[in-house]
Write a structure and sequence with these properties.
The chain is of the alpha/beta class. 35% of the residues lie in helices and 19% in strands. It has 2 domains: 98 residues, Ribosomal protein L30/S12 (60s Ribosomal Protein L30, Chain: A), CATH 3.30.1330.30; 142 residues, SPOUT methyltransferase, trefoil knot domain (Alpha/beta knot). The chain has 10 helices and 12 strands. Helix 6 packs parallel to helix 7 and helix 6 packs parallel to helix 10. The longest helix is centred in the middle third of the chain and has 13 residues. It holds the Pfam family MRM3-like_sub_bind.
């Protein structure tokens, strides 16, 4: 086990930089924090570069996982460093640095998928991924204009679901083309009463379900490419639903 006591240590400085997308992309690394996320990573056998924590936090992790953490990937740090690294007001004093492992090649041959077209709110993206995981979907596709999957707020909102299902950030139109080539119907959520009501839309065993931008919905190109346009009827006076709420309703309709 290594021990670091200063926020000016080079390793700590490099880890702190991972809060910014630029440095995550350059180093192909990202940071998670908190017991739940770290334990989820360990249980799903994720490879990691470093595990960092105070003595008390590491001892708690050992009790909860029934494992020993005393190799050179484990770094003992103090509370000052924890506060320096934490993206939350109340740090749990436990962190993990993991490699970014976006697949270079992939195909969408089967299953139930969610496509996020320019969804930019980290909380919405994380919640939608978590909901897709809970509903038994196979994966989520993020457009390149959507928020970065490794954003700390997205990580916290996913609550470990990133370790359970496939999540791929790739151009939306190429993903849609791949789904169609493999015979999966592509449905898009729209705010248009000319579309088909969700409650009148039969569930299907396989599909790609597109959720659009919070303010503007899916792009016209994406809408035009879909096999079916669907909407959730609104019975009150609200103009629309939150993107994550609308996605949750639709995801469970097709679960």
């Amino acid at each position: 086990m290594l021990e670091i006591n200063s926020v000016n240590n080079r390793t700590i400085k490099d880890i702190r930089k991972l809060e910014k997308k630029k440095y995550r992309k350059e180093n192909h690394l990202y940071l998670i924090e908190g017991f739940h996320l770290v334990i989820e990573a360990l249980q799903s056998k994720q490879k990691y570069l470093y595990l960092l924590g105070t003595q008390e936090a590491l001892e708690r992790l050992e009790r909860e996982t029934h494992r020993k953490f005393d190799d050179d990937r484990t770094i003992l740090i103090n509370e000052m460093i924890c506060d320096h690294l934490s993206a939350t007001k109340n740090s749990q004093d436990i962190f993990m640095v993991l490699p970014i492992n976006q697949p270079k090649t992939f195909s969408f041959e089967y299953g139930r998928w969610v496509i996020l077209d320019n969804v930019t709110d980290p909380g919405n993206v994380g919640t939608i991924i978590r909901t897709a995981d809970a509903a038994g979907f196979d994966g989520v596709v993020l457009s390149q204009a959507s928020v970065d999957l490794y954003n700390p707020k997205v990580q916290r909102s996913m609550q470990g679901s990133q370790f359970h299902i496939q999540i791929i950030q790739t151009p939306v139109m190429s993903a849609i083309a791949s789904f169609k080539e493999n015979g999966l119907p592509v449905y898009v959520s729209v705010l248009d009463k000319e579309a088909k009501k969700l409650n009148n839309t039969p569930s299907v065993p396989q599909l790609a379900l597109i959720i659009g931008n919070e303010a503007h919905g899916a792009s016209q190109e994406v809408i035009d490419s879909a096999d079916k346009k669907i909407y959730i009827p609104l019975y009150g006076q609200a103009e629309s639903l939150n993107a994550a709420v609308a996605a949750g309703i639709m995801i469970y309709h097709f679960a």
